[in-house]
Amino acid sequence: MKERKVWFITRPERDPKFHREALLALIEATDGLKIQWQKNREAHINYEKVLIAKGLKRNNISNDGSGGRTWAAMLKTFAYVYTDDNGYLHLTKVGEKIRDGIKVKENIIKQILTLQIPNAYFLEPGFRPKFESGFRIRPARFLIKLTNQKELDYYLTKEEITFFAMTAKNDNELPEITKKILHFRKADDNEKQIIKQEIAEKYDHRERSDKGARDFELAHGDVAHTFMLLCEYTELVEYFRGEALRINPKKSKDVSKEIEYYDERYPFNTRYLISLQRMAQSNGLDVDSYKASKYGKIKPAGNKLKTENKIRQLLANYPSLSELTFSELKSILEKELTSKEAEEYAHSIKEFAPKTLNSDFVESYLNEYDNRAFEDKTGNIFRALGFEVIMRPRVNSAETEIEILLTYNGKYCGIIDAKNYHTKFTLTAQLSSHMASEYIPNYDGYQGKRLMFFGYVTASDWGGEKNLKQITAKAKKFISDREIKGIIISAKALLGFLDYCIENNIPEEERIKMFLKIIDNKAYSSFEEILSYL
């Protein structure tokens, strides 16, 4: 199946003012979300019946419940609900607020303006066809920014949205798409037809398509209409039905200010790289759950974007900016900025940085191919969890192969082996023997600390979980007064654990206790597995 190359949105009810009614109907149809949703055709059909009873859907029930699934997909798209590993639906924070009738309009607008590709629903296994790789765009924000330009006379037609805007994959393509639209407007009818035909042939993913421009416009124009309705609901643009989005030039500055506020308050969310559930929960924060620009409120007089990109690069190795001290921030920034700039930005970041996972760190960590850098970033995660971290500790002045030693409570320690295998790491009998007979006895007593656990952090998949118990048994021969257990944890699961701790304001002492609790000769590939064990 070919991948999507143009924007898409599930659209059972195009007008967002009915999102709350659709959510309440889903809650009613599933007995307060207590009925399993996934692969439950009866629940899907029952949802359709409730929608019909409430006048939200025409009186036609599908044989397989596809109508109910489509409506639920719309609610997932906007992160009002998400599905857990057992197939049950859960409300996000914004879903709860909308259910309770709290700031309904403000919360729906927030979900529209933070809607992004990719998001948790678009990455679910059941979503077909998938989006092509490389998408990193907030469609509603992009359309509003595109419309709000003097070069385009502050308007954007449905045709232009269908053929140009909806082919953009990245937020930074605004100048390129603007240029294409301006060229299209100046073209004669014959040239316009050729341009549209070329776009249809290049971007249409549908197997049944004849690749004609008219067919492309019919197929994707409905999506364009839906996005235009969503933008209209924000009250930042006007929608002339079936024709165009427009912005009054007198309101242009106010629109720019509002969108800039959203750009600062709600940066692009990369949690889909960690976990679809964590992504849905994060995107599903209500409007009162504060977010802010990770770089604070300092606006450099010139080269703003270049300066912020530089800061992003410098801070990409650190998982939580809010938990770095002022001195640490300044020291990091002074590597490439002047002392004065570093001090100004460090103060700003310390004051305004949100208590949330650094999205730049997420991307850099999960796509890290340098083994030493992967080890260092893994150490930074454990440091953010509250452990004292010693990287590449030496025993008897000779450097060993263990990468990370964690100390806690002043008298205990654990050792972590970071495995940056991008195919699969397998805990073999040989590696098990090495851990049990060398690493564990060598590091027990390091700086007077009693070694209490061992572990492996893997860049991708893992195998050999059963050998964790073998290590514990063999280590008993060297250290008989305690049972030293181990853990295998994927980088995604470890990130998800830290993300959960930060978002729920869990103090460092409790974070360490929670991590120690999951060390039970078990392996974890996702944060959801960890959460079920806590």
From TrEMBL:
This is AlwI restriction endonuclease.
